[in-house]
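Suppose a colleague, Dr. K., hands you the sequence of a protein chain of 216 amino acids and asks what its three-dimensional shape might be. Before reaching for any lab equipment, you can write down a predicted structure in token form. Begin with the sequence itself:
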Amino acid sequence: MSTIVAPSLLSADFLNLERDIEMLNRSEADWIHLDIMDGVFVPNISFGFAVTNLLKKISKKPLDTHLMIVQPEKFIKEIAATGTTYMNVHFEACTHLHRVVQQIRDNGMKPAVTLNPHTPVSLLEDIIKDVDMVLLMSVNPGFGGQKFIENSVKKVTQLKDMILRQNASALIQVDGGVNLETGRKLVDAGADALVAGSFVFSSENPVETIRQLKAL
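The predicted structure, expressed as tokens, is then:
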């Protein structure tokens, strides 16, 4: 199976957002990754429902929505209304994670849980069979263009071992500092999906860059 590629809209040109979405529609990208930030959980603010509700009208790709916010459970119905396929919530932001995961599934979406770089994958032992995907942050969340944290490769290996050991079916997604070099390491370690922002959108040929990532 080829690598799942989810370009991050955070690095797109927001003055020409429809143009960039049309480019992704033409490309081999599998999903469109949406980073929603609140300026509280992470030190930045991105975009909200005014943007995401428009995307479902023009995107031909499934939406992969990553909530970098406090109390993400407050917005499950609003995220579902955007047509999102995967809803990512941070382990660190959910006091009652199992309940949130079930609410996401009850609202017709695939639940995913995200770990910050400092959070060990071992904390997912009791939830891994209840989620469809785990997103490992390979940079500190909040800003694009950061340097890849090498320990992320080890975390992918650890997570893959856990999934196999428990006979779980969760996909492994990685976000942060992804390029052809780091992407190769992650896929070799067991990653199924790669989020790439600046590497795709700053490329002279984003469609070809996406194709190269899928071929890893």
